[in-house]
Structures are given as C-alpha cells and as structure tokens.
Design a protein that fits this description.
Blueprint lengths: L3 H11 L16 E2 L12 H15 L4 H4 L5 H9 L10 E4 L2 H15 L5 E4 L5 H12 L4 E4 L5 H4 L4 E7 L11 H10 L3 E5 L11 H4 L3 E4 L13 E5 L43 H17 L1 H22 L4 E2 L11 E5 L3 H10 L2 E2 L1 E3 L3 E5 L7 H17 L15
Parallel strand pairs: 1-11, 3-4, 3-5, 5-6, 6-7
Antiparallel strand pairs: 2-8, 7-8, 9-10, 10-13, 12-13
Bound molecules: pyridoxal-5'-phosphate.
The site of pyridoxal-5'-phosphate (PLP) has 13 residues, from helix 5 and helix 6.
Pathway: Cofactor biosynthesis; NAD(+) biosynthesis; quinolinate from L-kynurenine: step 2/3; Amino-acid degradation; L-kynurenine degradation; L-alanine and anthranilate from L-kynurenine: step 1/1
Catalytic activity: L-kynurenine + H2O = anthranilate + L-alanine + H(+); 3-hydroxy-L-kynurenine + H2O = 3-hydroxyanthranilate + L-alanine + H(+)
Subunit structure: Homodimer.
Length: 408
C-alpha cells in the first residue's frame, strides 16, 4: 500500500512555492481547500489596512484622494492584474462586483452589435451570469439563449450579439478552450465575454493572445482580496473607442470634478467606473494581487495542476465511492475537483468539524479547491484521509452535520 503521508511530504519538500504559505495568516491546524470561494488572508493585509485607516483616512482625510493616490487605485490595481490574464495594463480596471461588471459589459456589447439581441450562455453557468442577462432581457434589451456546452457552436448564429461563458465552471471545474470558442463566436460576428472568476490566479489566461473582447473576474477568490473584494473588468484596446456602458455614473465621467450636467465617458476602461471606489477594499485587494504577481502565473499554474493531480489520484485510490465530475486531464480543468455523493453536504460538514475546509455546491457536489499559493500536498492528503475516516466511522450521520446555514 502506498504511504501517502510520505509521498505528500516528499512533494512538499520539493515544492518551489512552499515558502509562500508563510505570507498568509493560516492556522497550521487548518487544511484550507476553499480558496476558490474565499481566498486566505495575506499576512500583510491587516497592517496595510491599519495604515489605510489610521494614516490615509484618519490623518490624511480627504486629501488622501490625491495624496495617497486613492483616486487612481482602480486603474493601478487593474494594471497589476493585467499580467495574470494576458492583458495590457491600461485594459483592466478594478471595480464593483463581478455581477455589476457583467451588467456593464453585456450592455456595452449589445450596443456594439445593433440589430442583434441574443446573449448566448450555457445552462448551469454560475447563476449571477445568467441572472444579469435576464436583467437586460427584462428591460427589453437582450434575449437570453442557453445551449449546452457541446452545442455552443451550433447555437451561434447571426442573431447572437454576445457569447458569455465562465472559463472554468464553478461546479465541475471544466475549462473551456478559450481560443477555439472566441474564434467560433467571431466567425459569426458575435463578441465574447469571459468570466474569469475561477481562472485568475490559478490557470493560464491569455486574453489578447486569443483575441477576446471582454472579461470580468473576481477579487476575493484566488486573488485573496478579502470578502466582497472589488472585482475587475477587461476590455480589449480595439474596443475602447466604441465602449459605451449603461451604468453612466460620475466616476466614469471624463471629468468627474467638472460637475457637468451631461455625461461624457472617460477614455478607455476608466469609463467602467460608476460610483466612488471602496478604498479599504481596494487596499486589501492590492495586497492580494501584489502577492500573486510576485509569485508569478507559471509556477502557480504548475503547482495547481500538481495539487489536483495528486488529490485526484489519492481520492481514486482511497475513496473510490465518491465519483469525480471534474475533467481527468489537469490541463482541461481549473484548480478544484468536485465529487458527487448523495450526502455530500453532510460529508462536507463533517470534514469542516475536523478542520478540513472544502465546500458544498447544491445539490450533491463536494468541492476541494487548490489555491496554489498556500495549499500543501499534506493538506490534500489530510482531506482524503479524513474523508475516508468520516465514511468508515459513519461520523457524517451525526444530526448537527445535516443542519443547513444561510451560506453553504
Ligand atoms: C464567484 C463568482 C462570481 C462572483 O460574483 P460577485 O458579483 O462578485 O459576487 C461571479 N461569477 C462566477 C463564475 C463566480 O465564480
């Protein structure tokens, strides 16, 4: 029988990213396999926020908009995210939530394709993506069309203004071929908007390399920006001149402090700002993004694949009764694995009680996420061995593990 404890220790000893775990405030007793839902706390964040609050806000007061550079943070942080997604610095902006950025970019895309109303996506996409299309549909601006993953190609016709897909599926982890789908959409005259929420910081993304049009992504998952961190939006430079987003707030105006009655959009992605940016959230996001940028995408991707490959192998050997619904090829999936079981919820709660934190996605999936900056191979082995113990002991049947809280 394989000694997985030994094998995990060997892989950790050889791991070039092992030293980065110390950059996070993570209790040694916790195996945190949910960084794909809420990234861990960077060690530098509390102090940076203290400084932002006491000095920048407390002492600098309103002068910090200029003096501490608050006003330029959305563009600055956008520029720091750019190399993680194959973008140019001036094409990315940190702003609002993913949902709100989806609304802006769906609206912008529809205005760039007059005469076309269909926004094409897939059933089972992350709900907010589908809901934000529905919101535009309710206003008579869009028509929502859903096609299964294998039928996307045939659902693309000359009514489609925009193809909106999530690059890495939040539940299964399946990753689209971004280059191929972007090409297929463009061949029918449609634009493409990629949701990178489960991609940025974990898998290779080359937006300009594939010639995509728009993208959005999440700040609180692999970017470790903290709960409710600002999200980001990307617009290919070739679209900047034609960009018109519907949430025409004053911070996206060409001259916000001219206080004019008529709206005139700021050039480029600055137009994507709507209201005043949340500066404390921006400061926390800046620390998280800076960490990821310093580690670099190449080693992050390599580690992510190694972690999921290891876990997949050990799960198959030790807990074969849980069926994996994620693609078998590490290069065809994101940075998490999903396992289905009729009692996935209870199994997940029992794991959490043993301080192995994964999550549950309705109706029956147990997700194990591998944030490559701080997850160790020992964490992964611990998750599998605890799961084995929970099933063998029947521990998951304890009544407290079937109580559902508001957030699952
Ligand atoms: C996490 C996630 C979001 C988050 O949206 P918010 O509006 O920022 O809460 C959006 N899309 C996908 C695919 C996600 O995984």
């Amino acid at each position: 029988m394989t000694d997985w404890t030994h094998e995990a220790a060997r892989l950790d000893a050889e791991d070039p990213l092992a030293k980065w775990r110390a950059e996070f405030l993570l209790d040694e007793g916790v195996a945190y396999l949910d960084g794909n839902s809420l990234g861990a706390l960077p060690r530098a964040t509390p102090e940076r926020l203290q400084r932002a609050i006491r000095q920048e806000w407390g002492e600098g007061l309103i002068g910090s908009w200029n003096g501490a550079g608050w006003i330029g943070l959305p563009q600055k942080i956008g520029g720091m995210i750019a190399p993680l997604i194959g973008a140019q610095a001036h094409e990315v902006i940190a702003a609002d939530s993913v949902s709100v950025n989806l609304f802006k970019l769906i609206g912008a895309a529809l205005q760039m394709r007059p005469g076309r109303k269909v926004v094409l996506s897939e059933p089972g996409n992350f709900p907010t993506d589908l809901y934000m299309i529905a919101g535009q549909e309710a206003q008579g601006l869009a028509e929502r069309r859903l096609a299964d993953r294998s039928d996307i190609g045939s659902a693309l016709d000359d009514d489609v203004a925009l193809l909106l897909l999530t690059h890495v599926h939040y539940k299964t982890g399946a990753m689209y071929d971004m280059a191929a789908l972007t090409k297929a959409a463009h061949a029918t005259g449609a634009l493409v908007l990629w949701d990178l929420s489960h991609s940025v910081g974990a898998v290779p993304v080359d937006l300009n390399g594939v010639g995509a049009d728009f993208a959005v992504g999440c700040g609180y998952k692999y970017l470790n920006g903290g709960p409710g961190a600002p999200a980001f939006a990307w617009v290919a430079q070739r679209h900047h001149a034609d960009l018109r987003q519907p949430l025409s707030g004053w911070m996206g105006h060409a001259a916000p402090f001219a206080f004019e009655d008529d709206y005139a959009p700021a050039p480029g992605v600055s137009q994507l700002l709507c209201g005043t940016p949340p500066i404390l959230g921006m400061r926390a996001l800046e620390v998280g993004v800076d960490l990821m940028a310093r580690i670099g995408m190449e080693p992050l991707v390599a580690k992510s694949r190694a972690l999921s490959a290891f876990t997949g192998k050990v799960m198959a050997a030790c807990v074969p009764e849980l069926a994996c619904i994620s693609p078998a090829d590490p290069a065809a999936r994101g940075s998490h694995l999903s396992y289905v079981h009729p009692h996935a919820y209870e199994l997940c709660q029992a794991l959490i009680a043993r301080r192995v934190i994964g999550d549950f996605r309705a109706p029956d999936a147990l997700r194990l996420g591998f944030a490559p900056a701080y997850v160790s191979f020992a964490d992964c082995w611990r998750a599998v061995s605890e799961l084995r113990a929970i099933i063998d002991s029947g521990d998951w049947r304890r009544p407290e593990f079937s109580t559902r809280a508001a957030v699952t």
